[in-house]
């Protein structure tokens, strides 16, 4: 955890930004969490107001600290691969739950697919949308 936070401070410093309480609070709120909507992020950062949270997220996007994960036109915020192990998501369109998935074969496949096309990949995002097991069961019962 400490190392991850040092990386965060380092990125801010190199870009010429100071580590304000609001920025640190937003980063800590996202650390180790599943993607969060702006609404729940604002809720969970008690020590900074809404405008400061939005400003921090905007800056973090610019600096590559966070990324947006879109489901339709709605998005959630999560830390980039620099702070969390690389993973993909299963997103339930019924309840909105996001489950992280990790598959090494898929990773190698993506790289070789890109290279077959003469392309050197640097990043990718994959999200599978659908209906989770709990929601399928609930639908079956009613
Ligand atoms: Zn669900
Ligand atoms: Zn991947």
General description of the model:
This protein has 2 domains: 1-84, Winged helix-like DNA-binding domain superfamily/Winged helix DNA-binding domain (Arc Repressor Mutant, subunit A); 85-142, Dna Ligase, domain 1, CATH 3.30.1490.190. Strand 1 and strand 2 (74-79) form a beta hairpin. The radius of gyration is 17 Å and the shape is flat. It has 6 helices and 5 strands; from the N terminus they run H-H-H-H-E-E-E-E-H-E-H. The strands form 2 sheets. It has a 3-stranded mixed beta sheet with strand order 4-3-5, with no helix packed on it. The chain has 142 residues and is an alpha+beta fold. One zinc ion is lined by residues 86, 88, 107, 124.
Output the CATH topology of the largest domain.
Arc Repressor Mutant, subunit A
Classify the helix fraction into a percent range: 40-55%
For the biggest sheet, the summary is: 3 strands, mixed
The count of DSSP E runs of length 2 or more, i.e. the number of strands, is 5
CATH superfamily of the largest domain: Winged helix-like DNA-binding domain superfamily/Winged helix DNA-binding domain
Please provide the ordered H/E string of secondary-structure elements.
Answer: HHHHEEEEHEH
CATH class of the largest domain: Mainly Alpha
Percent range for β-strand residues: 15-25%
* Span of the ends, CA to CA: 44 Å
Main β-sheet, spatial strand arrangement: 4-3-5
CATH architecture of the largest domain: Orthogonal Bundle
Task: Show unreliable segments.
Answer: none
Question: Helical stretch count?
Answer: 6
Whole-number count of domains: 2
User: What small ligands are held by the chains?
Assistant: zinc ion
> Structural class per helix/strand content?
alpha+beta
Radius of gyration (Å): 17 Å
Overall mean pLDDT stands at: 91
Name the shape in a single word: flat
